[in-house]
Amino acid sequence: MVPAAAAATAQNTVMYPYFVNRTRFQSLPVYLDIKNGKTRKLTLVRRIDGDINAIHKELSSHLKDATVQIKSISNQLVIKGDRSKEVREWLTKKGF
What SS3 state is found at 6? Predict the structure, then answer.
C-alpha cells in the first residue's frame, strides 16, 4: 500500500526529455572549473542522460546572460562564469 503523500507526489511528477543523475554521495553533479591562473571560471554540469539539447535550451533561457555550450561527446554542459549556485537551485526546483 502506497502512503497518500507518496501517491500524490508520484502523480505530480513532471517528465522531462532529460535526466541529471546525482553522484554516489547524492549531490548534484555541478562543478566549478578554474583555469588560466584562476582568471577563467567555468561551471560544468555532468551526468546528463537523454536530450541534452532540451536541457541546453531551458538552462540558456533561465541564465539569460550566460554562455552555455554543449560537450556532446561527454554529455556535459559548460557555462561561462561561476553560475554553480544558480544551476544547483534550478535543478533542485526541477526535481533532480
Answer: helix
What single letter denotes the amino acid at residue 7?
A
State the CB neighbour count (10 A cutoff) for residue 43.
Answer: 23
What angle, rounded to 10 degrees, do the helices at 84-94 and 52-62 form?
Answer: 120
Q: Give the end-to-end CA distance of the chain in Å, rounded to a whole number.
A: 25
- Cβ atoms of 43 and 62 closer than 8 Å: no
E strand or H helix at 58: helix 52-62
Q: Which pLDDT does position 11 carry in this prediction?
A: 52
Please name the residues in contact with 70: beta carbons below 8 A apart, sequence gap of 6 or more.
Answer: 52, 53, 56, 76, 77, 78
Q: How open is the CA angle 89-58-45, to the nearest 5 degrees?
A: 55
**pLDDT digit string, tens, across residues 1-41:** 444 444 444 455 678 999 999 999 999 999 999 999 999 99
